[in-house]
């Protein structure tokens, strides 16, 4: 199953959840992480229930601080 993460293709097992895909990408720590699926932001408590479909587009943003 092909997903697009920040416009890059990713082969994922079927059927992936958003939580499983975040784990697959090893995006730890999760603090400061925001994810949108097909341009709709998904709240972190909803990640385990969010089923992804073929060709879904994930936008992942990590908040950073600096000066």
Automatic annotation (TrEMBL):
Signal peptide range in chain numbering: none
Domain of life, per lineage: Bacteria
Pfam name, any one: ThiS
Full protein name: Sulfur carrier protein ThiS
UniProt organism field: Hymenobacter rubripertinctus
């Amino acid at each position: 199953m092909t997903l697009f993460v920040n416009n890059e293709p990713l082969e994922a097992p079927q059927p992936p959840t958003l939580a499983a895909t975040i784990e697959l990408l090893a995006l730890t720590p999760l603090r400061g992480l925001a994810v949108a699926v097909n341009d709709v932001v998904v709240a972190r408590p909803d990640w385990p229930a969010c089923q992804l479909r073929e060709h879904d587009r994930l936008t992942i943003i990590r908040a950073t601080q600096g000066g």
